[in-house]
Amino acid sequence: MLSSNPGKTVGKPSHPSHRTNPWEDLPPDYIESLYDDLEDPADAGRVLANLNSNEAGWLARHISDRIEKERASFGDEIESELKVFSFSMPA
């Protein structure tokens, strides 16, 4: 029997390894904890060495998302400070 969806294997359950997009699922609940563990240089090597490929992918995505949020936050903060500064300047 041919599958109408070439990304899935016929007769097998929908398992992450059978999906065309590994990001379909939600990240593991402990990704934030892994991220926090990376902040301690003494633990970072151990944390990274013990990751499987799925965890490494989700951790990389989490780090990227955090960087993007912080970058946007800094931009908003700078914009607000510039507005305050421009209003406080004497004409």
Number of helices: 3
Radius of gyration: 22 Å
Strand segment count: 0
Q: Fraction of residues in helices?
A: 55-70%
What is the H/E order?
HHH
Largest sheet: none
Strand content: under 5%
Mean pLDDT score, rounded?
78
Shape field: elongated
Question: Cα distance, first to last residue?
Answer: 78 Å
Q: What structural class results from the helix and strand content?
A: mainly alpha
Give a structural overview.
- It is built from 3 helices and no strands.
- With 91 residues, it is mostly helical.
- It has helices spanning 31-38, 41-49, 53-88.
- Mean pLDDT is 78; it is low at 1-18.
- Helix 1 (31-38) packs across helix 3 (53-88).
- The termini are far apart.
Outline the secondary-structure elements:
Blueprint: H1 31-38, H2 41-49, H3 53-88
Helix pairs in contact: 1-3
Keywords:
mainly alpha, 58% helix, 3 helices, single chain, 91 residues
Describe this structure in a few short sentences.
This protein is mainly α. The protein has helices at residues 31-38, 41-49, 53-88.
